[in-house]
Amino acid sequence: MPFTLEPSYDENPRLQELVVRLRTYLRDELLPYEREHGITPETPLDRATLERVWKRSAELGFYGVSLPPELGGQGIGFAELCALKEELTASGAALSHSVLGDMGGPLRVGAIVKYATEEQRERYLMPVVRGERACCFSLTEEDAGSDVRRMTTTATPDGDGYVLNGKKVFSSAAPFADFAVVVARMAGEEDTYSAFLVDLDTPGCTVLDGEVPMSGQQMEGDLLFESCRVPAANLLGEIGQGLRIGIGRITLNRLLHCPSLIGAARRAWDLSVEYAMNRVVFGRPLLAHQAIQHKIADMATEIYAARSMVTATAVKADRGDDISVEANMCKLFTSEACFRAADQAVQIHGKAGLTRGHEVEQIFRSLRMFRIVTGTTEIHKNAIAKGLV
């Protein structure tokens, strides 16, 4: 497929049809709704606003589109999902994270379906797929980020259940979630971790306000467990599978974050070209100056390289191949390349690009954050070297 900033997928009619419908929804419905209600990436989100997006996206067939048909999805592959995720952030929509179900929705539960019992599917997962409930994933702790085995949250067997004690941080979607997938260390065990489905209104479970990241998005919360009792039926998978569930999901998430970063860089490119065409400097449009043309060229080249890597890796994932090394390569390169593109966008916009509230400034902050989120640059390099040598 020849490179264009706004790709066409003529060789894949199903994907092309989805992309066209998604662009139409974003342009004609979601973006006007956000403008009407003054919703920006930094607006505190309430459940009613999010449910409106969930339900409408489900009506249009986007919510959980990557899930198999028996779970209410269309069974699209990872490569197709990456194309849709890029379109979302390229649109500039503040609520783009809720259209496919990234934030508390089906994309959060899709990776754990295979571990769930039939009862857990019906009680917890299917309501999420239908847009009736939301979930968050809680693995990280203050002193257990990249080194998750340092976690101190414990699960103690007690009669016909388990008692959780500890604190989880940086749980995306926690402020509006109904339940969490919590990974905890089994009490008295040195290296045994398990996963549990925990209703957030359970006695002993408290949702705390999380830190606001540099992107300004208010979508994270902390979970405090104080003698929080969880029934045995809420054990997800088997005892000892907690890290497999948690880290296995993270590996795929590292790949699936990448198209969102590419879309944001693409949005920064679009804004930069528009600005450079209309800004007059020394009697000529800014875009007429070679220095600006070089920046535009560099940005497009970074986007092309990142998209090519991500697409190739997604195709490999669709074949069922191991992508642990490639997923880390994609997240490493994409996060760095897209941030460089955002940095160029700020430079092109000059003082306007430094102004708080300007879209380019917000993209810059968001993309800087993703050089750390879901694995730092250094952690990815460690993982790549370990996987290769």
Automatic annotation (TrEMBL):
The keyword Oxidoreductase applies. Residues 240-388 form the Acyl-CoA dehydrogenase/oxidase C-terminal domain. Its cofactor is FAD. It is an enzyme of class 1 (oxidoreductase). InterPro entries: Acyl-CoA_dehydrogenase (IPR050741), Acyl-CoA_Oxase/DH_mid-dom (IPR006091), Acyl-CoA_Oxase/DH_mid-dom_sf (IPR046373), AcylCo_DH-like_C (IPR036250), AcylCo_DH/oxidase_C (IPR009075), AcylCoA_DH/ox_N (IPR013786), AcylCoA_DH/ox_N_sf (IPR037069), AcylCoA_DH/oxidase_NM_dom_sf (IPR009100). One of its GO terms (biological process) is fatty acid beta-oxidation using acyl-CoA dehydrogenase. GO terms for cellular component: cytoplasm. CDD domains: ACAD. Residues 136-217 form the Acyl-CoA oxidase/dehydrogenase middle domain. Residues 16-132 form the Acyl-CoA dehydrogenase/oxidase N-terminal domain. Its EC number is 1.3.99.2. Transmembrane segments: none annotated. Keywords: FAD, Flavoprotein, Oxidoreductase. One of its GO terms (molecular function) is acyl-CoA dehydrogenase activity. Belongs to the acyl-CoA dehydrogenase family. This is Acyl-CoA dehydrogenase, short-chain specific.
